[in-house]
Each structure stands twice: as C-alpha cells, then as structure tokens.
Sequence to fold (173 residues):
Amino acid sequence: MENNYLEHPVIKNILSRKSVRKYSTDVVEDEKLEVLLRCGMAAPSGKNVQPWELILVKDRALLDAMGEGLPYAKMLADAQAAIVVCAVEEKCDYWYVDCSAVTENILLAAEALGLGAVWTATYPYPERMEVVKTVCELPEGVVSLCVIPVGYPAKEYNARDKYVVEKIHREKF
Fold:
C-alpha cells in the first residue's frame, strides 16, 4: 500500500492479534482485567439490546474445572484468569452475534495490553455449554458463547496474515 494506514495504532493492533494458548505464571493485574471487561461491553449490539453477561473467573479450581470439561480449553490450566461471555438468551434471537462482537473487543484489548487470550467456543455445543453452566452456576436463561483464557504469553507468538485477495468479490460473484 502506498499510504501509511497500516501504521495506524488501531489497525496495527487488529493485524497483530493472535490466539495465545500458553501462559506464564505472571498474575494479570485487576486493572487490566477491568479494561478487558469495559472494552467487551463497548461492543455494538442490535437495537442496543446488550444481551451480554460477563463472568470474570480467577479462582484456580473453577479455571481447572472448566479446562477439564471443555475439550478445546485445556490451556485454562495455565491461564491466570478467564472471561466467560454469556447472554440472557430471551433478550434477542441473535445474542450470539452481539456476544461475538464483545469477544472480539476483549481479544483486541488483550493484544493492546500485552496479554494473551484465545476464543474457546462453548456455543453451539450443548455439552460444552453445560460445563460452563455447571461450573459457573449460571442462572436459568443465561447461556455461554465462549470462554476466553487470559494471561501473559509464555512464549512469543506471531500473528498470521489472513488476507486472501481471492476472497474479495466486487459487484458480481
């Protein structure tokens, strides 16, 4: 590109985001965890319904229980915290779309703060959603979209360039 748009801090952060699955033992500061939650809740939502409910998990026993019960969230055993993105299902039929925006905001904020995080899906898998419901003692009507393990990366990760020009269509397919 001829311009410097790719050097803009927001653009650089988006393009630098990566999935981190190995964490150090360094404790994640409460202030940073609050920033992640604030950024998540800054997401847009259809008709401004904001169906989300976020659960911050720092208790080692709960992190381990979810890690044992969720097949693709074993990294919770090393994570210092996790954010469970949930929704009040009856608020809207498209809660999972709104909560996906929340999740991406959290992942981008983690990148900006030098933290590692990864999206581990629970929705639409009933058995995974049940693990979260049980471990987190979710009230009736609250369902989970995902669990986001959070910690300082234990090693260096590099973002992948996912830009594929062949996936861009103009006017006619």
